[in-house]
Write a structure and sequence with these properties.
Layout (H helix, E strand, L loop, with lengths): L1 H11 L5 E2 L17 H14 L3 E4 L6 H7 L2 E4 L7 H8 L5 E4 L6 H13 L5 E5 L16 H7 L7 E4 L8
Parallel strand pairs: 1-2, 2-3, 3-4, 4-5, 5-6
Helix pairs in contact: 1-2, 4-5
Amino acid sequence: DIVLEVAKQVKEAGAVMLRGGAYKPRTSPYAFQGLGYEGILDMVRAKEKTGLPIVSELMSADKINEFVENVDLIQIGARNMQNFDLLKAVGRVNKPILLKRGMSATIEDWIMSAEYIMASGNPNVIMCERGIRTFENTQEIQWIWRSFQLSKKERIYQLLLILLTQRETIN
């Protein structure tokens, strides 16, 4: 099982969580879109063998029970950062939520998305800065280094903010 082998390797390398995309949002309808529930079960089997908690992206509220039962940290991806029905739904669960900043989202948009989750009852939100898309063609994603400084002036101070490293694409 490839997921178990990867989990063992990342644990040996010092990882403390296993992040896997069982459901993959893709721009192209022809691209691989994940293994679905079978992918979740693969990660559960890897967790049983390695003890690594599972992080995976929830894309729709109809899968929420599957995630509550099997996933330790529910990720809301950049594309769903403003899916307000989904944000309210994860606000009603007792699991921590990893909220990635959308590619074109302002800091206010991002904070308000976290507020949707918290206003629905879940205070356990981790903010993930992933960078934004610009018209610069030497890098796909541009970092907003000031987002942390700006966010300290807002209500985000009560949340955990992490920076997600991305592979840089240089032409």
